[in-house]
Amino acid sequence: MSIIIKSEKDIQKMRIAGKLASDVLKIITPYIIPGVKTSKLDYICHKYIIDVQKAIPACFNYKGFPKSVCISVNDVICHGIPSDSKILRDGDIVNIDVTVIKDGFYGDTSKMFFVGNSTIQGKKLCQIAQNSLYLAILMVKPGIRLYTIGKAIQEFVEKYNLSIVREYCGHGIGRNFHEEPQVLHYESEDRNIILQEGMAFTIEPMVNFGDSNIRIMSDGWTVKTKDRSWSAQYEHTLVVTNKGCEILTLRDDEPFSSSVLINE
Q1: How many C-beta atoms surround the C-beta of residue 39 within 10 A?
Q2: Full-model pTM
Q3: H-helix segments, the chain
Q4: Per-residue model confidence as pLDDT tens digits over 15-32
Q5: What distance in Å separates the CA atoms of residue 78 and residue 168, rounded to the nearest whole number?
Q6: DSSP letters along 164-224, please?
Q7: Is there a binding annotation on residue 155?
Q8: Crossing angle of helices 38-47/8-28, nearest 10°?
Q9: In this structure, are residues 138 and 60 in contact, taking their beta carbons and an 8 Å threshold?
């Protein structure tokens, strides 16, 4: 296994790609309302990435994926394909997963949105999923074992009688969409990987209200919970610094200061 350590020049380009990805989530927010087609949301994101950001939507045609962003509603865990037939309804929860390529580097992020009036169940699920990501980010620093991150996420989520999806994980990122290492969100063997300065990867726990079992739809992409319970996911791209980590896809509405070292 070869983990690519990023140079400062690489990291600066990743900061730009990460900011662009987070900006897409910001501009799409006002359009997430009852009655909107997910295909329209995808179109708005696509046009913004291409025409305004002068960047590339990484998901478009990636291994045959037909759209520019993934939009996953309610019981869809990940890789939801935007379509004219999927129309958002009041009370839905929605994940939009955006990956942008700029100057050869990738920025990858996702967050949950509430459609109209949110439900108690939806709020609880999304809050726990987001907090599981945040506690993991706060752990990242040189010298720690990678597996401790997944162990902490799993323990936190299961404390609330929710479950973590096993089949999908975070990943190294940089000049490639997916690089080593794999970042699992549960306790598992990590091949003795120790975090070091310059490693860049995503953390993106997928949290189910029911059990962790999945089913893949006939389109070959859409992943749903087997028991039809709702699922939530939040994702950030980050790089390990000498004292902690820098979140490269940080949004303005989050409880971390932009471009600061976490764990100072």
Answers
A1: 17
A2: 0.94
A3: 8-28, 38-47, 120-139, 147-159
A4: 999 999 999 999 999 999
A5: 9
A6: E-SS--EEE-SSSSSEEEEE-SSS---TT-B--TT-EEEE--EEESS-S-EEE-TTSS-EE
A7: no
A8: 140
A9: no
- Retrieve residue 80's tokens: 């939801």
| Domains of the chain: residue spans and CATH | 8-261 (3.90.230.10)
Q: Give me the residue label for tokens 């490269």.
A: 248
Residue 188 pLDDT level (bands cut at 50, 70, 90): confident
Q: Is 253 annotated as a binding residue?
A: no
Handedness of CA 222, 228, 230, 231 (dihedral sign): negative
64 vs 69: CA distance, rounded Å: 13
Q: What is residue 263's predicted lDDT score, i.e. its pLDDT?
A: 37
Contacts of 155 (CB under 8 A, 6+ apart): none
- The Cα 241–Cα 19 span in angstroms is 18
Biggest CA-to-CA distance, the chain: 48
The answer to whether residues 240 and 142 touch, using CB atoms and an 8 Å cutoff, is: yes
On whether 42 is known to bind a ligand per the annotation, the reply is no
Tell me if 235 is assigned to a ligand binding site.
Answer: yes
Is 108 flagged in the annotation as binding? yes
